[in-house]
Design goal:
The chain has about 80 residues and is an all-alpha fold. The protein contains five helices and no strands.
Length: about 80
């Protein structure tokens, strides 16, 4: 599994847990909805700015997202 794929799985999990649409997440993070879709599918590489913007909307620490991404990568 690539880092991008693991990141996508994690942000989609948090987004669905909070019942937030891709559109609402994108708007709150100052991103395009299609970019959120591409991130969730592992088609784009997130920047640190993207990580912080998304984590703020999802109300989770960026370090928690990174930790979960690491856990997904360890499961390989």
């Amino acid at each position: 599994m690539e880092i991008e794929q693991a990141f996508g799985i994690v942000i989609k999990k948090y987004r669905l847990e909070r019942s937030i649409s891709q559109e609402k997440l994108a708007f709150g993070a100052g991103l395009d909805r299609t970019f959120i879709s591409l991130l969730e599918r592992g088609k784009r590489k997130p920047t640190i700015n993207t990580l912080f913007s998304i984590s703020k909307v999802l109300e989770v620490k960026p370090s928690e997202i990174v930790k979960e991404v690491e856990n997904h990568l360890k499961q390989i």
